[in-house]
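Blinded run. Sample ID left blank on purpose so nobody reads anything into the name before looking at the predicted structure. Input follows.
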Amino acid sequence: MRIRSIVVFWFLLIASLLRAHEGMWLPTLLKSIEGDLQRAGLKLSAEDIYSINRGSIKDAIVLFGGGCTAEVISGQGLILTNHHCGFGQIAAHSTVENDRLKNGYWAANKGEELRNAGLTATFIVRMEDVTDRILPQIPAAVASIEGERRALISTLAKTIAEEATKGTHYKAVVRPFNYGNSYYLIVTETFMDVRLVGAPPSAIGKFGGDTDNWMWPRHNADFSIFRIYAGADNKPAEPSDANVPFAPRHVLPISMDGVQEGDFAMIFGFPGNTQRYLSSYAVDYVMNTADPLRIAMRTASLGVIDAAMRSSDRTRLQYADKQSGISNSWKKWIGEVRGLKELRTLQRKREYEAAYLALAKEKGNDTYATALTTLGSIYSEYVPYATARDLFVEMVYNGPEVLAFANGFTELVDQHAALSKDGKFNEAMAKALAGVDGYFGSYDVEVDKRVFKALLPIYRKHIPERLSPSILQEIDAKYKGDGNAWIDAMYARSVFVDAAKLKSALRKPGAKAMKKLAADPAYRASKSFFTSFLEQVRPTHAKLSEGIETNMREYVKGMTVLYPEKTYWPDANSTLRLSYGKVEGSTPRDGVTYAHYTTLDGVLEKYLPGDAEFDVPQRLIDLHKAKDYGPYGVNGTLPVCFTSSLHTTGGNSGSPVLNGRGELIGLNFDRTWESTMSDIQFDPDKCRNICVDARYLLFIIDKYAGAKHLVDEMTLVKQDPAAAGQGVPHMIQLPLHR
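Blinded prediction complete.
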């Protein structure tokens, strides 16, 4: 049982050393920290939060799409998530004539709820530690050969997953934790019919825009509402008119008690990625190379896109979702670099590693010491390839769209002869034609060209010469170093930037037409970028990454052996986690103190008529002026947002923030700018997550939007004053009739 003892080092906690403000805990292990949770203010048992035998809070937590969290708030399958999580779907249902992104949308009945192609909602059925079924099966000869180890584990995992789901409609996957020192089976149920029910206008859901993003104080109602539909048997079904609202196993009640400074709070969701155990070599790369480079690329791109979006409603809708995705990480990285510097993270990592090496030597654990020193050697080779990879991603996938778009025609253009021989050419051609209108519907050639011109000089300055796409040599050879002239010529001659010309080219099938497309300047540029990456960068990057993975696994394992008295939790990896702390403000910098809450008064203080980020709908102004807050107001004002010291990251967007009784008190949507380094180093004194107060989102649904029929589906509760202070979760349900 040696393997089991290693896993226990990772997950079982020493109560006296537990820091409630840090950690993303697997729900299967909450029983081991139940006492700590209850001493912190939890009124429930671990079984109430996670159970496989009965309905529990975990049955109300949803993986929304592929990267956000949502939660069930009604017995008719209503789910709540962030406005920015539903942004793509809302934008897809918007046109210049019917701008649901700008004006908001509220389905008056279920018949008006809007389908969303490809959108899914996934529940966790159960999680199970299967480390003892994986690690003993890995021969010593394979353990350090990352590719062979991964292939073997994949085979073992497939068998375990198939056994777990045999005879059911569930899906399962085995996920690695702690760099492959442990493994968990995760069984899921995924629903494919998820419909848009309601969303506030952007002036409310995205109030403050990029200026307020990652900042506190905050004043936006970052939420949207969807509904899960199922077949008549309440099981997942393909989207259909025959489907009915899903009947959930658990529904989160919504607290009307609000929050006070120091209240217990917890968050349950799917955090995406943390990197708590990074070596100093990795932190050095993030702080001094990767983040600054990505910031520079996105600053240039946003300068073009933001100006274009301000110039026209059509362009604003075309680029709304793209701009949001680019901007969010851009501002996060700026705060991350600042936070890591303020916390002296790189220096702390180096000090820890020096002590680690000394202790490993003292105890004769040469394997752990070797793993750390080997990481240093690998990173000296890795940085140029990682830089080239980051530049490729920013240029091709977050830069001018023509490069990725043209690459989508590679099979058709380069393999037309083989496709024709197999009788598949016409099918491939029809598929290519079918996607043209959708792409060009959200594409502006002039914006794309300006983005290309803004990014190319940064790309050329930082790309290692030996890893640069060969096509860029044309700039010096044919255009005397004038990158803008090269880009102008490309866009002027390419069919991949003009829907009509591309359709015309695709309607002339045959070797001659495909040869002409192969010579297209945008296609040649795209092919050169992809070829240089796939042939010169990715193979070496992958090989070095495998070396990093192998040695990180041993290095991190060494932490538990050399420092067994410390608390270890596994890095976030988009699996279900619970974090807990309390509602509280902060003092992030000298002379700066933040309260833990904001109110609607602050919205009107920020109000700038006609401003793209700080305009306010007239109805909200009128409700504020009349102080018409219904049952959601407190002492003559209306709570809007609050902060708490919960450990969150990307993927926690849309996660429910719950009180000690398991009731929804808020909806997580962001972190403060001082917290963006928390993926690498969490500071409980500085780090705060930002939440929409549940009463504000109810007010927007009910009083602002007039969608009381949605509130009527929900369970609103208030603690019985007679039970207050007794630790007894007695509730009175509020019908909220007016």
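Unblinding after everyone has recorded impressions. The longest strand covers residues 182-191.
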